Backbone:
């Protein structure tokens, strides 16, 4: 049941992440996600069989942690209000949404009292999963959100850098998960403690 609950939290968290991208794009002038019916928290509209079910299950069974994704909410960058930071703002909306969820439930956890109750354990799981999603998506490797933020900083005269990262993005992500993810763990623990006031 613990695993099922964590999968449910992960799915809803990635749905919130993706819907936030869609709303940010809509606010900047692109309604692609709205036209495709993706501005909804209904998980059935966003589930990716591999990223939402298979990968999290395998990660939990063999790695002891949850990792996954939903179908990306589509947007057309050419419809966004002109500006160098438009795509970056859409990209940032997802991690910001996850951090916001973590803060809200972290505040509830701070005031919950008994830290050993099932209720507080549920709150802790929600906070932790949303922190992991936010931090992971801020890694500057395509197609993760962090890459859009980095590309917004790059001047237009060096597109070859973006082409390189986008061409080898999947391999770089796999390398990062296998060899560098553990180096990010202390940051996640620190953020968790900062938000909840609870030692991990």
Residues:
């Amino acid at each position: 049941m613990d695993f099922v609950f964590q999968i449910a939290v992960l799915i809803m968290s990635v749905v919130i992440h993706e819907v936030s991208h869609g709303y940010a794009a809509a606010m900047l002038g692109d309604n692609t996600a709205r036209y495709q019916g993706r501005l909804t928290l209904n998980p059935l509209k966003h589930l990716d069989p591999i990223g939402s079910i298979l990968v999290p299950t395998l990660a939990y069974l063999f790695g002891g942690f949850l990792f996954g994704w939903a179908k990306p909410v589509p947007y057309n960058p050419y419809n966004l209000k002109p500006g160098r930071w438009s795509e970056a703002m859409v990209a940032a909306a997802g991690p910001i949404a996850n951090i916001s969820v973590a803060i809200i439930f972290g505040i509830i956890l701070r005031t919950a009292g008994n830290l050993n109750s099932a209720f507080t354990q549920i709150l802790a799981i929600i906070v932790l999963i949303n922190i992991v999603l936010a931090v992971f998506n801020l890694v500057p490797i395509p197609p993760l959100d962090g890459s859009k933020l980095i590309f917004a900083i790059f001047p237009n005269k060096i597109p070859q850098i973006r082409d390189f990262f986008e061409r080898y993005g999947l391999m770089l992500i796999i390398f990062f998960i296998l060899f560098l993810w553990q180096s990010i763990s202390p940051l996640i623990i620190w953020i968790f403690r900062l938000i909840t006031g609870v030692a991990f």
